[in-house]
User: Fold this.
Amino acid sequence: MTLAVLGAFLLAALVPVAPAQAEGGVTVTHALSLIGKPKYGPDFPHLDYADPAAPKGGILRLHAIGSFDSLNPFIIKGVSAAGIGLVYETLTTTPRDQISAEYGLLAEKITVPDDLSWVAFTLRPEARWHDGTPVTVEDVIFSLETLKTKGAPFYRFYYANVARAEKTGPRTVRFVFSGPPNRELPQIVGQLTVLPKAYFTTHRFDQTSLDPPLGSGPYRVKAVDPGRSITYERVADYWGRDLPINRGRYNYGSIRYDYYRDQTVALEAFKAGQYDFRRETSSKMWATGYDFPALRKGLVIKQRVPDASPTGMQGFAFNLRRAKFQDRTLRRALAYAFDFEWTNKALFYGQYTRTKSYFSNSDLAARGLPSKAERTLLEPYRDRLPPEVFSEVYEPPKTDGSGNVRPNLRIAMRMLRKAGYRIEGGRLVSPITGKPLAIEFLIVSPAFERVVLPFIRNLARLGVKGRVRLVDSAQYENRLRDFDFDIVVASFPESESPGNEQRNFWGSDAADRPGSRNIIGIKSPVVDALIDKIIAARDRESLITATRALDRVLLWGFYVIPQWHITYDRIAYWGKLGHPKTLPKYGVDLMAWWIDADKAARIAKQIAAP
Assistant:
């Protein structure tokens, strides 16, 4: 489920004037864009970062962490297998060099009226399921209704303003919208995964399953070893292989994911040539873990690839459903015990930048004091907002990086004492619960222990008892789904044009829905109102204003302790992988790479040599 194309913008920016056809207040086009015009015209030959002459064949070997017990990624039950999205397709798709745009995939034509009250998609006549039957309008309508009623909570929020879908022609389906005009809804609907209606007459949609599903995508499931590996094979007669958006992509004959217990084991497997491509998420591993013979011999390539994508927010997220975290002062004070500067220098080799916004690395991030337009939005809620929203620029606590966090702890203790906290027997006692404060950090990656343990030591100096609870991926997913935690490391990805997904992140209606992304449990009428402003924004300027206003409210709510981000991808891959000279602006598209058979043979021979 990509968040890369959400948001609101002018109709002039949403639907290009040319070469689309516009008649009678209705525009017909091959693509939509939320920012500017689509980069590619209706007759483009292929994406700039794809090579139509790329060789086909070979096996791409990838890795995943943990386990899986389902091939159904659409429900909250079970843990779905890595790569399962390769089996399915959506009405439109987004290239990695213009993440604000969507181009027709299953749909060949998109029709949008000026009043934005609906959007219609005309399906390609050649679109086929893997069993050879056509993809139909009935499949599209079934998909929307099923995902909204039986799918994960995400879908109900995401498609909340899609009132209904109706057949208006042999290959045309119209989605009718409810509520005020919403510039993002046509693209939100374009992201709908289309499911085969006939298949689900004999298969339960709302149950986990390891049966290979029926899809229409470039790959199908070939082999499953539950919890250990899954292999996909390229569909030889894939209906969409010659579409311009696909030409030069999906080049591998098969793709296999092997599962490993943790990233440390997985890295050793990569060094031994057990899989081919790795995105490194650990700064320590990136700095110290890649000195091995294959890299020194040039068999493995290690590089940083620029990525201009918005980086969103990652942080220690509080669970506000816990009474102890209802106190904003406590949440603010605890942030003074996290020493980012020392962590970045001592543990991360200086690779990260401190995150100061929920919309970091984008023009949507709050900057300086609120503008006049922002104040106009915020003023009606002044009595329900912290005064700092209007008068201060948010900055997370800082240290000198030496490891001496004592000055910050003094600030935190003054805050806590003023709020009624007291020390008894060396423990900080909460005025809310009347009990000594204890915090459990729930984590799924052992690599995060080295980050959390110094934080816990600093908390102990405030009288707070902390502990780390490391669980496997299945237990982590279950506890996250049921909101059974104190603090977790949470990531909230954002796009260039935020919109409906904000309801699932921060909206009051999502707070008590198991499986929602509002893991913090925020229930704020002010936040809800600002989300509505974002969704209803009529142009880019008003979208930026509303988003920056929301950013300020979230930051001064101290719902998370911000962590860090980077603006490049750290990748390593075996030299048998080839790729075009042009790489997309927004990170790596591995599906535009290929296997070089000659290099693969030479590397295999060198690995096998004593």
